[in-house]
Design a protein that fits this description.
Shape: globular
CATH architecture: 3-Layer(aba) Sandwich
Number of helices: 7
Strand content: 5-15%
CATH class: Alpha Beta
Distance between the termini: 17 Å
Radius of gyration: 16 Å
Number of strands: 5
Bound molecules: 3'-phosphate-adenosine-5'-phosphate sulfate, adenosine-5'-diphosphate
Largest sheet: 5 strands, parallel
Oligomer: single chain
CATH topology: Rossmann fold
Structural class: alpha/beta
Length: 186
Amino acid sequence: MRDQPVSVATVWLTGLSGAGKSTIAHELVEALRARGERVELLDGDELRESLSKGLGFSREDRTTHVTRVGFLADMLARNGVWAVVPVIAPYADAREQNRARHEASGARYVEVHVATSLEECARRDVKGLYAKARAGEIPAMTGVDDPYEIPEDPDLRLETEGRSVRDSAAEVLALLLPDESERTLS
Ligand SMILES: Nc1ncnc2c1ncn2[C@@H]1O[C@H](COP(=O)(O)OS(=O)(=O)O)[C@@H](OP(=O)(O)O)[C@H]1O
Ligand SMILES: Nc1ncnc2c1ncn2[C@@H]1O[C@H](COP(=O)(O)OP(=O)(O)O)[C@@H](O)[C@H]1O
């Protein structure tokens, strides 16, 4: 049981492929659900099979995708459902459109830059995409031959290198639930 109501938010985890967005998002979802919150995970890969089916990785398509996801996240957050969003969102203008939408609706918007370096992401190469990009098999790979515009003023710039997943996720949770003395990260 919590003592005080918490402020539901959209939590947008932006960063390169392999930065740790999905891993941290899953930790957050678990922790929030464990304390009885209503939460939706809006995963970029999954939404590209439904809401954004048919969209690719051109600047125009990414902007359409990212602002669509922002629309959905805002709708959830302003109705009391946490929206945890591990989506690259590489362009500053699309991220700002989403922030502005939330400001207009009164929903809380928390931008977390998962600031893992390109070198580390390429070393992790969770999905083998960096190797494919190097081999010329994937065009417009973010950070390689398509830009990632680093957030200038995120609510949190999160380091993951040399840290555990639990530690990184706990830092985000501390921002989301500042009044909690105990945070559940199972
Ligand atoms: N060219 C290119 N650049 C970046 N990423 C690529 C690309 N092609 C496919 N993928 C895979 O698609 C996932 C990114 O989807 P997103 O919806 O998060 O991207 S974006 O915000 O529209 O840029 C991304 O997922 P994550 O690795 O979880 O970030 C990749 O698995
Ligand atoms: N502190 C950390 N936070 C998040 N992920 C980490 C951390 N340290 C190592 N990793 C690893 O990095 C990888 C990140 O992959 P993933 O979460 O799929 O990235 P993304 O969703 O950004 O593409 C995972 O294998 C994860 O275990």
